[in-house]
Design a protein that fits this description.
alpha+beta
């Protein structure tokens, strides 16, 4: 509720009362005229904000502050000069900031440089979670477990692995020999790679029957050679390991022509 100061009429809100005062009494009471403390010019300000606005512009306020808030009158008059902990240059800070921080830096760059140096020192040798002893970074001669060629590695690298290989090719060849069959985590129970005497002729018949293209995605034989460098593959719908006689597994109704990608999808599903 808002009451008109001239006729005491009551309104639901201040905005309506101000409109009434202009229309009924030909006088606006929304703004007051006050004098700028810096330049002396009169300016209008909302009545509810006149206590907060003593200057007609930001320029007048800045001018008044630069003329009056100097020396002991300035709230930062008691700032102290200290040296940057990183580069040694002089900086000024208020006492509150000096008490709140153990270190003083003139810029973000100096702060980050100092912190990175501290972190690197904390993460060296026994302070590093990967520390393996004072000689862990020594370079030693090691023999490759596959090709038996000598190569250099750190003592930590040798102690942290069961096998040591001079190159990625030796490592992959080692995996191909040791991580196969039951030793491979993808193993689902296998069978001998021999598909019987009828396999090759039945394979050719299946590819001819399927028009020399993958029955899932439609890739042709020529496209398969271009992309994978090998011929199309023939998949046993019912796994051959479930048959006692390979000839029964190799009947055409149990065979389907697939590309390498589609074959892997069927095997994994």
């Amino acid at each position: 509720m808002s009451e008109c100061p001239t006729c005491d009429r009551v309104f639901d809100n201040t905005h309506g009362m101000r409109i009434h005062h202009v229309q009924a009494h030909d006088e606006s009471i929304a703004n007051d005229t006050i004098t700028c403390q810096q330049c002396g010019d009169d300016f209008h300000v909302q009545r509810d904000k006149k206590d907060k606005r003593d200057y007609c512009s930001r320029e007048c306020f800045d001018t008044w502050r630069s003329n009056n808030l100097t020396g002991e009158d300035h709230h930062r008059y008691n700032r102290k000069t200290v040296s940057c902990d990183e580069c040694g240059s002089d900086i000024t800070k208020p006492p509150s900031l000096l008490e709140a921080s153990e270190n003083n830096y003139c810029s973000s760059e100096c702060k980050y440089n100092a912190l990175s140096d501290k972190l690197s020192k904390k993460r060296t040798k026994e302070n590093n979670p990967n520390w393996q002893g004072k000689h862990s970074t020594d370079i030693i001669e090691t023999v490759c477990d596959l090709c038996e060629e000598e190569f250099e590695q750190t003592r930590h690298q040798k102690q942290s692995t069961e096998h040591n290989f001079c190159c990625r090719e030796c490592y992959h060849e080692h995996l191909s020999k040791t991580k196969r069959g039951e030793n491979n985590f993808h193993w689902r129970g296998g069978y001998e790679p021999y598909y019987g005497e009828t396999w090759l002729p039945q394979r050719r018949k299946a590819i001819d029957r399927d028009d020399e293209q993958c029955q899932d995605c439609g890739m042709t034989r020529d496209q398969h050679y271009d992309e994978h460098g090998t011929d199309l593959e023939v998949h046993h719908k019912t796994p051959i390991r479930t048959f006692e006689d390979t000839a029964e597994a190799n009947i055409l109704s149990n065979l389907i022509t697939l590309c390498t990608t589609c074959h892997m999808k069927r095997e994994n599903n």
